[in-house]
Amino acid sequence: MTDLLTPFEYDYMLKAILVSGLIGGVCAFLSCFITLKGWSLMGDALSHAVVPGVSLAWIIGLPFSVGAFITGILAALTMGWIKRKSALREDAVIGVVFTSWFALGLLLLSLYPSHLNLKTIIFGNILAISDPDILQVLTIAGLSIIVLTIKWRDLLLYCFDEAHARAIGLNTGFLHFLLLSLLAATAVAALQTVGACLVVAMLVTPGATAYLLTDRFGRMLVIATLTGALCGITGAYASYFINGSTGGCIVVLQTLVFLTALIFAPKHGLLATRRLRRLATQSFTPTSMEKAGAAS
Q1: What domain range is 194 assigned to?
Q2: Alpha-carbon dihedral of residues 245, 251, 257, 262, nearest 10 degrees?
């Protein structure tokens, strides 16, 4: 029993557990809107597009979060401009832009070496998070939660039906940019926790899990946020005992929860869907008496 409390004796583990839970909850809250909007690939793109911003911030002397946030927004605007000016599908545009920006970041890191470890940027290193980084995460998380709490109804309508939102007078252009900004800011905050490669999992998996478990958006927000926060806390805690990647533990745990929901969800799970199909088939199958009557 005492061994189970050992991680709480170290300050770096306490910081890692608390920050992982906070980031997991914020990413999960936002993931509901991303899932509803169908922006899973957008989250992947922005999580990789922040890498050149980290490099440029180091070269210029700015805080890393500022550079990462700016390049994330620029990448999103670039995707929107190319999509409007060309006949390319959105998935092709996202693929071209995020790989290009990610490659630019890798090039800058190789040309202008810094004390930053490329592995840390790509995979994260929550165990080495500093107090200023924690303050940055708290600020971004707090602002994101406040904005989402205030504007969640407008964002819900925009994500569900953009045309209807525009018809009733909502500024869809502003809501589009607001959602992109929140996505970029959250990706920056999660960069330290799980790295650029795994940010997209934290921005998509909890929302997808909650989507399988309920048809009401309010409940979806609660389920996703709790799932993200608990997986962040539990994953960081478990990483101490297995001596594994903290980000990897968090994302694997989220995936296991998603697979459980995918199979056992009472309405949208695989077992429930199979049961409904079987009942539907049986209801259309003629009984033996009906067969005999038809034959006579």
Answers
A1: 3-284
A2: -140
